[in-house]
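Sequence design from tokenized structure. All designs in this work follow the same two-part layout: the structure record, then the generated sequence. An example of the structure record is given first.
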């Protein structure tokens, strides 16, 4: 059978990354922007796995970077959702254009 090569994984990772960048730059909804950032982080995780598998097949150093990246992404998502909830309570909208000012 055909084995999946490094180029196949990198094409998928690049696609995920640019879909995330496009979604972040074109969407005005904060939840959609957060999902786009998560797509970008998942593309990075996929690169870590691919390069770990093809460059250092016996080691797990790429997987440790992924675990660290997932922890950072979880913290980022928690803070972002807290900000989004606070903005919704104050402005009744999560649209970027409506959230021009943040008041205490």
């Amino acid at each position: 059978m055909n084995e999946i090569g490094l180029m196949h994984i990198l094409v998928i990772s690049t696609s995920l990354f640019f879909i995330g960048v496009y979604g972040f730059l074109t969407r005005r909804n904060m939840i959609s922007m957060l999902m786009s950032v998560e797509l970008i982080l998942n593309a990075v995780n996929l690169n870590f796995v691919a390069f770990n598998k093809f460059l250092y097949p016996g080691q797990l150093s790429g997987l440790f970077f992924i675990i660290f990246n997932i922890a950072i992404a979880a913290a980022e998502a928690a803070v972002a959702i807290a900000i989004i909830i606070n903005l919704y309570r104050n402005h009744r909208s999560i649209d970027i254009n409506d959230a021009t000012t943040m008041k205490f």
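Residues 6-98 form a domain with the Helix Hairpins fold (CATH 1.10.287.3510). We note this feature because it recurs in several other targets discussed in the main text.
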